[in-house]
Amino acid sequence: MLSIDWRTPAAYRHTRNLPAAGFAWEYLRRNNEYRQEYRALAASKQPASGHLEAFVERWGVRFPQQSRRAA
Questions:
Q1: What's the rounded mean pLDDT across residues 9-33?
Q2: CA atoms within 13 A on the CB side of 15
């Protein structure tokens, strides 16, 4: 259980300086559907064709390219 009272403005003081993307992330990361889909996507080493694109489209997120190590 959270120790903050979500009904008081003091509980949200930290959000005053958040950029829009940070504020959106605070909501998105608490969304159970998003969290379930992310866990499923992260668990697969090679997502099926189109799954990552569908996830990005549905949730409006972007993932940076991972750098590849030279062999």
A1: 86
A2: 12
Q: How high is the pLDDT of residue 66?
A: 60
Q: How far is 28 from 58, CA to CA, in rounded Å?
A: 12
Q: Please measure the distance between the N-terminal and C-terminal CA atoms of the chain and give it in whole angstroms.
A: 48
Place of tokens 């959270």: 2
Q: In which band, very low, low, confident or very high, does the pLDDT at 30 lie, cut at 50, 70 and 90?
A: confident
Q: In angstroms, rounded to a whole number, what is the distance separating the alpha carbons of residues 20 and 17?
A: 9
For residue 54, count other CB atoms closer than 10 A to its CB. Answer: 13
